[in-house]
Q: What sequence folds into this?
């Protein structure tokens, strides 16, 4: 508080002389000292924090043996006991086991079912890896996702071996009874993979509606295949732009020359130049879009740099500009489908219908180049989306903004034969009622599931003697109580 001509001098003198205030201040200091003593780091806590730091920052286990690090630890606490790399490794594995148990318990306690996604990668060393991710809504209605497994997957990547690997993951986490669906890309081995997993889960009656909702194709991957088909029409132009990006990014001096050309033209490079990844079409779109942004700069560079031989011609630039406008809606929908912070199931039907309407419109375009491209994409579209995902169509019916009327409207708009559109709408409505009945009558469903498991005991090679059966029965009773509560809430 300031002293001066502000009318606060009297209050200032009171603060200096107030005995009660000094007592409170002294109590606060004592409490702070006591708190510091209580928070004194123990050796156990120290090792746990070191393990967390190693994981978080990808440090080597030998980090704890660095002379400089040990000096820092000793300076902060002279009583610290230094550990070896083997001890730090054991601490990391101990922390991993603890976190894994926490995740397993969390997955068992969630009120609903779990949706899975899985994919394969090939590293730069040509080693295959598989990833399995769980997606669910927790008790607070928050969307959560957890990477359950990321491990080496040696070849061959056949459907049988993939299914055995993924099924072993489900057994490891104890979530076989909670699975709702799995999303995979559109490779043929994945079709076989999901078939084998579905057969195993259905043999124990663990899937809703006999697994009709189990397999969900990756919409973003389908979009990638559709647009890649269209990009073949402008393949030469795309190759030139790709080679242009490689040429510029291959040398710092070339990028400096590019910046000089931008200054001469009066353009500032606010966004970088993109080089695409051949397996992701939206990366190709970003590359083309960035090239279009600096079209005048690239043309100027082609005039000054005799070694720059991949600059597109005027006609090719015009063609790329038209194709960029055409592909922008596809890029927007791909980005929408690829979101991880929000639900995407209810966005599927609307996005797919927008794509089909766009293709139908562009097929009638006066621009023969665009219409030819749209026709090729429509063929690929019909191949993959003729058998649309029923569960994702049901999702938009449950969205109060759209409901069944919207589905009926869209089918009648894109389906030339009226009775076929009506049949599709009726099929979705029937499926939705059957899905509801699975929850409305959980007791009969559970009875059917148990009897089906006993009936298939010879097929499942001793499933009756499965050590998990007692736990499964307890889970059945818990699920019955939850479903009974859900049925009551839906009725009222």
A:
């Amino acid at each position: 508080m300031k002293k001066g001509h502000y009318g606060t001098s009297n209050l200032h003198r009171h603060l200096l002389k107030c005995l009660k205030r000094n007592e409170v201040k002294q109590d606060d200091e004592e409490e702070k000292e006591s708190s510091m003593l209580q928070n004194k780091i123990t050796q156990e806590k120290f090792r746990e924090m070191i393990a967390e730091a190693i994981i978080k920052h990808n440090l080597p286990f030998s980090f704890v043996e660095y002379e400089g690090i040990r000096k820092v630890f000793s300076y902060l606490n002279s009583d610290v006991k230094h550990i070896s790399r083997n001890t730090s490794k054991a601490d990391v594995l101990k922390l991993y086991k603890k976190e894994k148990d926490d995740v397993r318990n969390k997955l068992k306690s969630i009120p609903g079912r779990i949706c899975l996604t899985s994919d394969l990668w090939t590293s730069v060393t040509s080693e295959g890896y598989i990833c399995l991710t769980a997606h669910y809504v927790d008790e607070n209605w928050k969307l959560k996702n957890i990477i359950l497994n990321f491990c080496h997957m040696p070849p061959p990547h056949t459907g049988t071996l993939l299914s055995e690997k993924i099924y072993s993951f489900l057994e490891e986490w104890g979530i076989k009874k909670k699975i709702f669906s799995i999303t995979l890309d559109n490779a043929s081995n994945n079709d076989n993979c999901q078939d084998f997993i579905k057969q195993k889960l259905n043999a124990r009656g663990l899937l809703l509606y006999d697994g009709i909702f189990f397999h969900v194709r990756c919409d973003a991957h389908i979009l990638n295949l559709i647009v890649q088909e269209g990009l073949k029409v402008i393949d030469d132009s795309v190759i030139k732009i790709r080679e242009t990006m490689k040429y510029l990014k291959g040398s710092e001096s070339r990028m400096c020359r590019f910046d000089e050309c931008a200054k001469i033209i009066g353009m500032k490079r606010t966004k970088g130049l993109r080089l695409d990844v051949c397996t992701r079409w939206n990366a190709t779109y970003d590359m083309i879009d960035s090239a279009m942004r600096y079209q005048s700069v690239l043309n100027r560079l082609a005039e000054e740099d005799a070694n720059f031989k991949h600059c597109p011609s005027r006609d090719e630039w015009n063609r790329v500009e038209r194709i960029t406008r055409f592909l922008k809606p596809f890029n927007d929908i791909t980005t929408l489908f690829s979101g991880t912070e929000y639900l995407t199931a209810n966005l599927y039907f609307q996005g797919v219908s927008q794509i089909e309407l766009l293709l139908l419109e562009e097929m009638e375009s006066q621009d023969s180049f665009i219409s030819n491209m749209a026709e090729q994409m429509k063929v690929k579209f019909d191949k993959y989306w003729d058998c649309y995902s029923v569960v994702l169509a049901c999702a938009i019916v449950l969205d109060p903004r759209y409901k069944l009327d919207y589905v009926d409207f869209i089918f009648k708009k894109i389906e030339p034969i009226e009775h076929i559109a009506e049949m599709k709408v009726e099929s979705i409505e029937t499926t939705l009622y059957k899905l509801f009945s699975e929850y409305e009558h959980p007791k009969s469903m559970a009875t059917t599931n148990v009897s089906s498991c006993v009936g298939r005991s010879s097929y499942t090679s001793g499933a009756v003697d499965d050590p998990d059966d007692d736990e499964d029965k307890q889970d059945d009773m818990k699920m019955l109580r939850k479903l009974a509560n859900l049925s009551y809430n839906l009725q009222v």
Remarks:
- Residues 443-465, 486-492 have pLDDT under 50 and may be disordered.
